[in-house]
Amino acid sequence: MPRRRLYLLMSFLLLLYMMLALRIAYFQVIKCQDLAAQATAMHSQGIRLSEYSRGEILDRNFQPLTGSYTSTALYGLPAEMRSSRSVTNEIYGRDTLQMVAETLGWILDKQDSRMIQEQLERAAQNGTAFVRIASDLSEAEIKRVLSHNLPGITVAPLIKRYRQDGFCCHVLGYTGGYQNNEGQAGIEKRYNALLKKGSSPQELLSVYDARGALIKGLNFKFYEEEDRGGSSVVLTIDKRIQEIVEKEISAKVKSGAVVVMDVDSKEVLAMASRPSFNPYHIEYLLQHDQSSSLINRALSRYHPGSLFKILVATAALEENLVSERDKFHCSGKYVFNETQSTSCWKEEGHGELSFAQAFAYSCNPSFIEVGQRLGREKLLTYVDKLRLCDETLLGYEYHPGSYVGVNPGKIALSNACLGQEGVMLSPLQLTSLLATVADDGLWQAPSLLRYTINSKGERSRIAATSCKERVISLGTAGKVQGLMELVVSEGTGKNASLAEIKVAGKTATSETGNWKEDGEQSLDTWFGGYFPADNPRWAMLVLVQEGESGAVDAAPVFKNIAREMLKIL
Hints:
Elements: H1 2-41, E1 43-48, E2 57-58, E3 69-76, H2 78-83, H3 87-92, H4 96-107, H5 113-126, E4 131-134, H6 139-147, E5 153-160, H7 169-172, E6 174-175, E7 183-185, H8 186-190, H9 192-195, E8 202-208, E9 221-224, E10 232-235, H10 239-252, E11 256-262, E12 268-274, H11 282-288, H12 309-318, E13 327-330, E14 333-335, E15 341-343, E16 351-354, H13 355-360, H14 364-374, H15 376-385, E17 403-404, H16 410-417, E18 423-424, H17 427-438, E19 442-443, E20 449-453, E21 459-460, E22 469-470, H18 474-489, E23 504-515, E24 521-531, E25 538-545, H19 550-568
Parallel strand pairs: 2-10
Antiparallel strand pairs: 1-8, 3-4, 3-5, 6-7, 8-9, 10-20, 11-12, 11-25, 13-16, 14-15, 17-18, 19-22, 20-21, 23-24, 24-25
């Protein structure tokens, strides 16, 4: 009997367990069906971030020059604020927008709550889905914003278009800002029509249920489209070299410019100007900038000083008016008459020296004599022949107003031969001259653009205005190359020499006609050259304004950039 009772008890318990399991399974199915129905009823509303609404600008290796800098931004959705109901609002009779604006004005440093409220109200009236209230939030600000759980307010990642340190800013240019997405300068302006067609790669998503209510915990998702689409611009710039250049001149050059060019293709690999600027502070700069930060000094005109002696030497050698071994005498000045003379930078003079040495030591009296042999007409002929004043930059438009205009008379000609009065050229034009010499006398217009890519992925190249053109005989080019190597090995350009490779170049110091507070004239100091000298690959021009001399200020910058380039190329 006990055994039978035990058997019945066990059967009852087993039956009870099976019924309980079936009931749990039933409710799980019902719950899954409800969740599936809810998920089906959910829908999302995409809100495009306007800073991503332009196509990207890429370097020659497809590395992004825009759109790769992450920040954190604060966004407001006016419609969500209007639909919210707050007990605090009802007690004090305040509008939600007003409450949010006042709270944010207290949370965020240097933010005016009235301006935030006006921004939100204007967006609500215009039916704007969202507004960006603030960018570059600090960790403390993010925590304070999130702790208040404000309706219609979210913090989201923001991929900014520009770096705030001004990286490549003079080349890229800038747009009109958050409210005006039109290109205003640089590549942004030149290719505005194309870049405007670029589609947004990211969206903010608000997730709603079937009744149109926000689903808490799922709103404000950050979504990335699988197909970015859009158009882009591919420049000749090499981001690695641009980084090297920017780092060096940020440390060593308060005001000036650097241009790096591929000797063979004549493509601009780097172009930087100082002072730089923050692309997000344009309105302030237009009103208060005292340093002309927005000016691209690489594309502006200056007296080139002794760099112009490269052209004078080229013309004189080509015309067989001088040879490297011809002798000159420098007493410290060139005398025109009893009242007029031009001094050499070396007050006591160089004494007896060859033409090659005159070039290496940048002797002014010797080059005035060479210029007198050459004459005004021949000099101007070679300015045209070497395309020195050509302002072509393929893929970009710039007009520095460069010129070489020599008045009649010995004094005017001497001033021009020394790269002063009558001669105004841009750093880019001088880099082109260096590349022509390094390329054995072959000229080709410089370029900044490789091609554009439309939304279909189709590439369009800009047609070259010309193929390579011989403007200097091979023999003369070789002689000038030898002179430039001597500058670095024995002359004024020793500070640009490298142990790893041979460098060729030319120093220069030019008067500006501007005077500093201490009564000294402000000088532009230069070094232009190419490397390796025995197999030229890169030409580079360095301008340092308000310097002492090309040897002291510009040549070391050239050396440091060249050394860092050799490490990566």
